[in-house]
Amino acid sequence: MKILHLSDIHMGGGFAHGKIDPETGLNTRFQDFVKSLTRAIDRALSEPVDLVLFGGDAFPDATPAPYIQQAFAAQFYRLVAANIPLVLLVGNHDRHSQGQGGASLSIYRSLGVPGTTVGDAIETHTINTRSGAIQIITLPWIDRSTLLTREIAENLSILEVNQLLLDRLQPRLEGEIRKLNPDLPTIVLAHLMADNATLGAEKFLAVGKGFTIPLSFLTRSCFDYVALGHVHRHQNLNKTNDPAVVYPGSIERVDFSEEKEDKGYVMVTIEPTQQPASKSFETTWEFCPLPVRTFRTIKIDVSKSEQPQQDILAAIDKVEIADVVVRLIYQLSPDRVELISIAALHEALSTAHHYTIQAELISQLSQPRLPELGCSVGDPMVALSTYLDNRPDLHDIATAMIAAANELLSGDNLGVGSNRVLLDSESSLDAIDVSPSVERSSPLDNSALDKSAPKQTKPNNTGQLTLL
Fold it and tell me: 141, 360, 397, 450: which is deepest, by most CB within 10 A?
């Protein structure tokens, strides 16, 4: 049995790194996302596969524009025409009002789309494929309102609420396991943050909005494969592959935090084992990269250069930027600002698909802030997360520090504090950047040259960027 596993499409996201296509009137990054999804579905049809599993987060939010919904549905409807079953799992971005207002994917159940199963609850689905039946346990994104009531969680700390959630989840999952047919292969399809996952765009942990699930919940001998969604970086969390616990990652780069990550999907094969005394089924899988658009950061310190303009242009010339999303960051001292021609930088970057220019002024007056923080930060959680991201020596206690800070500053819909919106697990530095910058999609638009004033950063007397 062949299965295609993909996740985190985020159709309609990433517009900030694109431009308007004059022929279609659509954002070019939207077109990139459609192309990546199309290639994945092309593979499903050409194999052909027996089943497609989608691990959640179809759109950036639960209310996408009609043309975005249409583009998403058009690709998956190709599977319906080919009689390939599909399971659509609900992710955190697919839920409306933290689960109280339904999910964007629920419409596929209401419409009765043939061969399409919507996973918006913890339950087991038996799917009939051309190669036989298979069991899929769906575990959609869980927030506190899913398993708890306000009264139960009242006066509990964040960590205590998370433990209570796990205590409630475990018997629910165990109940589904006990109903399994041992003669059929079993897959868990889950949208979650596993406790040992390596984060991609999820630099800021979702301690305040979700919770992490121990890997031991997923590494059960009765599972033949665990198909995950939520984390954008592809990885297998169980190196023994018994079972494989796999994040396929997102199908496109959302921002610069994913600059160096491969994007793609996973092809899974489940066959009856050749050793009847062991497990009934044997699973193999392969990550299949997609040819997505390149993101590239060009960063240079010209604070001590006698010819900063030439050095910056030389740094740009060293890399391929044609049709690339580029971020230029240069650091210079205040006395050399007049040596920089912003117009020349725009001209040098004009062949890029899209670009931003960030100037960081380095003075000798005091120690600097982290450049990621910009000139000022209004959210202390952003400041703390950025600080911890730059302090590898505090890695072991980072999660506990964020949890404690969230507990002090926030609450959620359970009444454990205010209803302040906390950091989402898929936020990134690009999403929260408050620093001044110049942003362009080529061709050059000279109307915004006046936005290119360098931002002020406060370095120490060594010129190295450290936190106050």
Answer: 141
Measured in whole angstroms, how far is the alpha carbon of residue 166 from the centre of its chain? Answer: 23
Q: What is the pLDDT of residues 284-326, one digit of tens each?
A: 999 999 999 999 999 999 999 999 999 999 999 999 999 999 9
Tokens read off for 366: 């005091």
Q: How far is CA 348 from CA 217, 297, 309, 312, 326, in A?
A: 52, 15, 11, 10, 12
The whole-angstrom separation of Cα 275 and Cα 255 is 46
Question: 190 near 228, Cβ under 8 Å?
Answer: yes
Name 329's bridge partners.
299, 358
CA atoms within 13 A on the CB side of 431: 20
pTM of the predicted model as reported, rounded to 2 decimal places: 0.77
Tens digits of residue pLDDT in 50-67 = 999 999 999 998 889 999
Q: Indicate the burial class of 249 (C-beta count within 10 angstroms; 0-12, 13-18, 19 or more).
A: buried
**b/e per residue, 314-335, with b = 16+ CB within 10 A?**
ebbeeeebeebbbbbbbbbbee
Q: What is the DSSP string of 85-150?
A: -EEEE--TTTBSGGGTT-BGGGHHHHTT-TTEEEE-SSEEEEEEETTEEEEEEEE----HHHH--H
